[in-house]
């Protein structure tokens, strides 16, 4: 009995370790199916887009700082003549950056959708060829519903959900990195606290990802009985009224609703905990370092405001990054299942002589 318990504990630890790991093989399979040209185009367009977005915010900070300084200097020197500030150079640069950002957003969206379409076509074509050439023992041992799910539900996930999640994940990751880079540029003392924050964020997201994935699956599994019971009740409303079972069906509907609400409540609470815990630490450290640098190093108020603005948004970026990472893990299961069928050995058939 002791050996059995130790084996169960080892199996449980191995299962938990597997759940905490990112399916890198499925991710590599998806990215390799995108091709050599589309993947660099996707990464380059995302980097350029977020660089332009940071440049727009930096231009606005300089514009505001120079406009305020022109008005404050005559008042500090008790001058009656007020200098007029020329807004035209800043407005031209701002307009050019905005137009460039719109073009890059369009290019990024096209690259994401093009990548998803190419990956879906390639995986679907490869899967169809494997299934057609599969031996008869494969169809005798594999349920037909499982094969149909690979062609319907999994291909639909790869076609529609993974490209959108990949775009959201890359956007939130780059936004988080750019926000931390701006805060570090404004207040270099923030780099000292960045290392322990990064370590803390790594361990928090490692455990949060597993919990978020399980809670999302629990939310989905409790939503299906609720919708099924509601549709069945609406269709059989005449029979229910004839047998006077309204109270029974109402009570069952409330039970399904409570089960789904409990799962949604825990999922929302976990997301809020992640956002508030890490975000509060980043905002506190950024605010303290910004005020200290402003008092002793004479940093302009525009840059301090830019750093604090990005610090307030880091919590939201981190939350969406981890949530999108958890969603990506769930959706990459479709690629993993299709990749498992792609390893099926073909029938040894050479045709008629």
Automatic annotation (TrEMBL):
Transmembrane intervals: 30-48, 93-112, 179-205, 277-296, 303-322
MF terms in GO: ABC-type transporter activity; ATP binding
InterPro entries: ABC1_TM_dom, ABC1_TM_sf, ABC_transporter_C-like
Any Pfam family matching the protein: ABC_membrane
CDD domains, alphabetized: ABC_6TM_SUR1_D2_like
GO CC terms in record: membrane
Keywords: ATP-binding, Membrane, Nucleotide-binding, Transmembrane, Transmembrane helix, Transport
Ranges where the ABC transmembrane type-1 domain occurs: 41-329
PANTHER family associated with the record: ATP-BINDING CASSETTE SUB-FAMILY C, ATP-BINDING CASSETTE SUB-FAMILY C MEMBER 8
Name of protein: ABCC8 protein
The organism of origin for this protein: Panurus biarmicus
